[in-house]
Hints:
Number of helices: 9
Helix content: 25-40%
Protein name: Transporter substrate-binding domain-containing protein
CATH superfamily of the largest domain: Periplasmic binding protein-like II
Keywords: Signal
Number of domains: 2
Domain Solute-binding protein family 3/N-terminal: 10-233
Distance between the termini: 34 Å
Largest sheet: 8 strands, mixed
Mean pLDDT: 92
Number of strands: 10
CATH architecture of the largest domain: 3-Layer(aba) Sandwich
Family: Belongs to the bacterial solute-binding protein 3 family.
CATH topology of the largest domain: D-Maltodextrin-Binding Protein, domain 2
InterPro entries: Solute-binding_3/MltF_N
Amino acid sequence: MEITDTIHLTNGEWPPFYSKNLPHYGLDSQIVAESFALVGVKVKYEFFPWARAYKFSEDNRWHGTVGWPLNKQHKDTHFYSNQPINTGNWVLFHRIDKPIFWENINDLKGLIFGVTIGDWVLDGENELVNNLKAQELTYIRVVSDESNFKMLLKGRIDIFPQQREVGIAQMRKLFNSKQREQLTFHPKSFQNMPLYLLLNKKNKNNKRYMDLYNKGFQKLQDSGRYQELLTSFAKQSN
Length: 238
């Protein structure tokens, strides 16, 4: 379809799903851009720290922002896409020499979790996250995912909860192969978090843009292209 319009969206760094340094700016960025293109809209991304990315959308400096979980506060200020862009599985990373075996939360008590300040993990609603929030599980908060992984490698924390593919990408960036061999993750997923496109309610054009996006996303699914992107991504991530 001929491109006749442009929408400006904020974005952030969360490779391999979002990054200014990746082809198409990452998988989820590509899904949003291709969905809009199917209805004649070009996407222009600008990258910021995530808190600022949301604030710039909320203040209507940009039309919207990509990659956010369901949140009542966000719903008050933004339109949500009908369907999530993607849904990620969150797992528990740990050292090989300190394996974890868990069927329920009681199996994790006494272990030290690392949680990143401002991370999405605490936006979830599940038993593990609720126990972290209630401080029934022991955790410390640090400024970055990178710091958590370094602390995990040194044995200063026992568990780092992270989205599976994001955690693998972060380890590849941070550590050499010998260091990576010391870390792994438990195969059991504790959280599946859908991430959505948000368009602010202050912009008078955004209801129309969201309607267009929803149509484009449905076209992407119906054509098989959406599944093609997910399958290609899964092969590259293994």
